[in-house]
Amino acid sequence: MIKEGKWIHRVLKKLLIILIFIFVLIFVLWLVRFFMPRQLDDVSPEVGCSEELIEKSDILIVIPLFNNKSIAENKTWCDYILSLNKTLVLHGVYHTYKEFDEARSEDYINLGAKEFEKCFGFYPEIFEAPQMALSDENSETLKRMGFRIIGKSNEVFSKVYHCQEYGKFRVRIGGITITNKLIDFF
Ligand SMILES: [Zn+2]
Q1: Is the pTM of this model over 0.85?
Q2: What's the gap in Å between 6 CA and the centre of ligand 1?
Q3: Distance 76 CA to ligand 1 centre (A)
Q4: In what order do the strands lie in the sheet with 87-90?
Q5: How confident is the model at residue 107 (pLDDT cuts 50, 70, 90)?
């Protein structure tokens, strides 16, 4: 009987250590996400984004030709975004579903990059694919063109907000529904 008690005690101790370890990992991830630059996806005058979201983010991921309409047509918007002094990233061209899963040429990418340049006065240096779907071939093309690519791990280690519907927007990552409100907390 005494032996059995010791055995249970040892198992409980191990379980406790595992639980503490998991808790520490989650806490470290929370800290990392808290201090990493905040990112806002799908920025475009066509999407409609709250100023609160735009201003609390450090990196704005801009769609150059959403709904076939160039951001460069809205000079007031371009100047406003530029005045905020944030890091600006090219987010696809038209942002159609999994746009960069199929092979895209340099000319195609330039359709978006040139509108970005017309709007902000500089050629984009960083790229993020819509829905994070990027084929190896497109990744090579973008690198050849000199782009730095934001990859999937970014959504784990930093807070990534989305413009649509002022926080009601939901994305599902690995079975978990993510909203802007939830991202505020974690
Ligand atoms: Zn997007």
Answers
A1: yes
A2: 55
A3: 23
A4: 148-149, 126-127, 87-90, 59-62, 39-43, 160-162
A5: very high
